[in-house]
Write a structure and sequence with these properties.
alpha/beta; Rossmann fold; Alpha-Beta Plaits; 2 domains; six-stranded mixed sheet; four-stranded antiparallel sheet; about 30% strand; globular
Amino acid sequence: MLKIENVTKYYGDFLAVDNLSFEVKEGEIFGLLGINGAGKTTTFRMIMGLLEPNSGMITLADKKIDYSVTDKIGFLTEERSLLTKMTVKEQCLFYGALKGMSDKEILKRLDELLEKFGITNYKDKKIKELSKGNQQKIQFITAIMNKPKLLILDEPFSGLDPFNIELFENEINILAKEGSIIIFSSHRMEHVELFCKKLVVLLKGKAVLEGEIKTIKQKYRKKNIFIKADVTKDELLQIKGVLNVIEKADEFEVKIESNDIIDDVFKVVSKHSDVTKFVVEEPSLNEIFVAKVGEQYEK
């Protein structure tokens, strides 16, 4: 288990991370989210032992993270961190050696991953000759080469098309099933919802939202109703408790302040004879993120 307990980090007088606590079990994919400058990168660096917290404790399997356990960690940074004049093979041999792997182990694992990602013919190509998407694949491969016990993924889908996102998803889920502890960070909330059951949202270094996504959605009172009917936007807006009505190509998305308003909306809609859709949905994680962070940001 990875434990972050009451961790605080200052840069001079600037408070970058403020009394942060969370834990991630083996096989879990955990979301660490926040706007730019929220403290995510500092937290990642402390987890990997690159920065020391001013107070608090970070442990992996009840031990402080230091160079004795870095062989068990994988990190995919948001920025490109590849040596572009190296070939793919040379790059992977270099990173694999840093993780204590033998050349034989590295090349076997490399062939396996290149085949999975459909780029076996790039093995002897220089990094700079690859597209941004294929460079991202190589960066991901170097991060998971050692089948890490702890894997940190910062914007892993950057530059990828939907087909390649699915390839990454499959491999991330395989690692989780094999017991890897995975911390996932992305500004794309739909990607977070694909993987994570739990998350922490940071703002100015402090956790402003945390827990299981399912519970967070249940507690967030505002809901959405999707309606296909001959009702008008003005009719819907006149209902007390309706916050907004978004008119789409063939339906209305009605935002309500709580479940208590559902019956009132249905009474108005059911007066029309051509109702073909009336579906109540939980708000998206993106809606909750924007609302919660915006609310806290203004304080």
